[in-house]
Specification:
This protein is an alpha/beta fold. Helix content is 38%, strand content 20%. β1 and β2 form a beta hairpin.
């Protein structure tokens, strides 16, 4: 890649000439001599081979090419300033990135609210969000590929902070054979029907969670796919209530009238990596996740201010 011929200082000088209304005013603002400012802009035009300013009376104004290039350069200067700020924050221990892995059953709306609140405080810190199922979360954390993890499992060697529970409800389409029995259901009733289960995304020791007593089982890769299958009348299964509120409201899905086990509410835990010191950005994100964990899922939230 060819090295740029024009420096950021030259672009800043041109910007000052335009913003302050002339070479003398720019020189005063930049605490430089007028001849230095004039030479910088003249040299810049020579290097680019494009006239950037023209004299209109006693005032230097941008040419059409100058307007386009200066507009682009403002964004370049802003990004360079942000890069320097990020380097300063990193020198103070501020992380460049926080990696968060979340079990797909945890409400996405809560994560969105936490990240929305985190953005204006992030100081350029990026967030890498990853969704896994069951032991997939554990593997990502134990392999050192995440700084924070949200899981319903007890992760070996880690002390998690308990956050909220997620209710899983046994459901089927209203026209499913189980609903047509028109009575309270037992596990014996379920054994003859197709159960839709979600595949554990872990590779090392995948776990089966929940009731798996049906002779026929279809395993799918995501909760969304499971909800689609069950809503279409293909089997029954346990799904997070927060994910199927609309389907329940519209009557596409209906809770199974089980005599016991119709719903379960496992607690979820927030874990942090033991192998990486916790920086200020990670601590802020932890606090925000905990704050928004108890907020109602349908509560409105504001977008972050634009930088």
């Amino acid at each position: 890649m060819k090295a740029p011929r024009v420096t950021l200082d030259q672009w800043r000088t041109l910007q000052a000439v335009v913003d302050h209304g002339g070479f003398a005013q720019a020189a005063d603002a930049m605490h430089r001599s007028q001849s230095s400012v004039s030479y910088t802009v003249a040299r810049m035009q020579e290097q680019l081979g494009v006239p950037l300013l023209r004299i209109d009376g006693r005032k230097a104004v941008l040419t059409e090419a100058g307007e386009v290039l200066l507009r682009r350069s403002r964004q370049l200067i802003k990004q360079a300033s942000q890069l320097e700020d990020l380097a300063h924050h990193m020198e103070q221990g501020w992380e460049a990135e926080v990696r968060l892995v979340v079990d797909a059953a945890y409400p996405t709306a809560r994560i969105v609210r936490a990240l929305t609140a985190f953005m204006p405080q992030s100081r350029g810190c990026r967030v890498r969000l990853r969704e896994e199922v069951l032991s997939g979360v554990e593997e990502v954390l134990l392999e050192g590929m995440a700084d924070l993890a949200i899981s319903s499992l007890n992760i070996a060697g880690h002390l998690g902070t308990e956050i909220s529970t997620v209710e899983f409800v046994a459901v089927a389409h209203p026209e499913h054979a189980l609903h047509k029995l028109n009575r309270e259901l037992t596990f014996q009733d379920l054994e003859t029907q197709l159960q839709v289960v979600i595949r554990d995304s872990g590779r090392q020791q995948p776990r089966d969670v929940g009731w798996l007593g049906a002779e026929q089982r279809w395993t799918v890769g995501s909760l969304g796919t499971a909800a689609t299958f069950i809503s279409s009348g293909l089997g029954f299964g346990w799904l997070p209530r927060h994910m199927i509120q609309r389907e329940l409201r519209e009557g596409v899905l209906k809770p199974l009238p089980l005599e016991k086990g119709g719903s379960r509410s496992p607690a979820f835990y927030l874990y942090s990596s033991k192998d990486k010191p916790m920086g200020p950005a990670t601590q802020i994100l932890i606090e925000l996740i905990r704050n928004f964990d108890t907020a109602p899922l349908d509560a409105p939230f504001a977008a972050p201010p634009q930088a």
